Amino acid sequence: MTTPPRSARRSALVASALVLAALAFAAVGHAQAPAPSAAALEGVDAYVAMDLANAWKGHDVTSFVTPQAVHFGFPDGTEVVIPLPDEVMLVSVAPYLVRTHPCLTHFMSGCQGELVEVPLHVRAVLGDGTVIIDEQRSTMANGFMDLWLPRGQSIELTFERDGYRTVGLVTTHADSPTCITTLQLAQADGG
């Protein structure tokens, strides 16, 4: 029996991680989020932690994501850090038309994008040409779209809607930004 090439194994691992992220989102997205507390974070993984952080926006909780972990700060001084998986990291992207804000670290408790709950076609392509996302997704109530992307990559992201388009390059390294607010949608050529 031959072992598949490393790139095929990595692609399979990334695909599995993306499926798990989608399932985790579906599980939390359809359930009522628990009240914000450190206890509510016990035993959860990074996918669920991100969903809770987004659901808790507007409550008295500070939350942000780095390339390494999801961080929570509660009013009583309690801090909780939930590590991200080894194979993927979260990049939160807020495509915009007119208004944006400068940002490098995504604060789920504070960042607000312009395009709230707007469906966009998103495409993510690795440097070797492998397409890892090619589908319609909607931004969340905060105007951002959370993307779980493979680590150690340069990834071209394209967002499109109604004849408008933006393309940008993001990286997923230990020092990469987790908040991307520089992708302005503009009228696509020929439109």
Protein model, in words:
- Helix 1 packs parallel to helix 2 (46-55).
- The longest helix has 24 residues, at 6-29.
- Helices cover 18% and strands 32% of the residues.
- It has a five-stranded antiparallel sheet with strand order 6-5-8-9-11, with no helix packed on it. It has a three-stranded antiparallel sheet with strand order 1-2-3, covered by helices on one side.
- The chain has helices at residues 6-29, 46-55; strands spanning 62-65, 69-73, 79-83, 88-93, 119-126, 131-138, 145-150, 154-161, 164-171, 179-180, 186-187.
- It is of the alpha+beta class and 191 residues long.
- The chain is globular and about 55 Å long.
- The protein has two helices and eleven strands; from the N terminus they run ααβββββββββββ.
- It has one domain (6-187): Immunoglobulin-like.
